[in-house]
Fold HTH cro/C1-type domain-containing protein.
Amino acid sequence: MEQKMMEVVLKYYREKYHLRQEDICRGICSVTTLSRLEQGSREVDSLLGQTLLGRIGKEVTLFETILSEQDYELWKMREQIEKSVENNQVKTAKKKIREYRGVMPQDESVHEQYCLYQEARTMIAEKNTGSSLCGILEKGICLTIPEFRKSMEKVRLYSPVEIGMILLLIHYDPSKTEMAEQELLNILAYVSGYQSGGKKEKVSTDIFLELISIQQRKNDYRKIMFYTEKAIQCISEGAGFYHLADIYFLRAKTREKLTPKNADKNMLLKKAMEECKIAACLYQLEGQDEKARDAEKYGEGLVCQTTEPEI
């Protein structure tokens, strides 16, 4: 996607989704910049272009938004940073982030946000998940969403980096539970409306897992069942089974806690046993034999709780 194509794609999808220019560029660049980009009278670097496209759920591939030789060098540095982070090469990643900061455009918030996101990922790799991590994540989010945690907008567009940082912040900062739950539901609505394919399945599942985690802290077992059902439905619409075994196993354990002391007990326990079997099979497919044995053992324990009906 050359720069001249980016303007066409941005304008096409903005009009298709009935979005205003300010909806897409809020916190990223000025409306004037986006307007000139759509008109073909302004060029932007690849990271800014990717972020704008990401807000409407569109991904770009290698070289598609490279603007110049300098932009290409920045792209290569980002690739090296991400590879180092993924391989847990923390010292190398930190060094490359410092180098990137020395040459990146200083007038675009998306570059500093990118650096803060990668810094946060290195801290997680070091198991440094305290208040410093949360501070970095919140700082990065607020670069492009200044109103974050100050006002709760039900209609908001998100870039992939913004979603990644928000999910990490909610995961490692359990405070402000109600606000976190609403933000997750807002992101879920955005993902459902603007993303598709494997990306939609993975991000939606990650969101459901965080929603489930919030309900676990509140011991709200009925909501756990609700969100696990929604997660299973979401995954079933895709091509993979990302975290599906974990969700089935959690559902079985939650169902046991909800089992009433009446005639329905056997039926509900049998459903939980079936979910344990499904979880065990999925774990085996993933090569997670220990987890498969745990699910099987848990299911066997449920058998002991069933009672034969009186004659």
About this structure: Residues 3-55 form one domain. Residues 197-218 form the longest helix (22 residues).
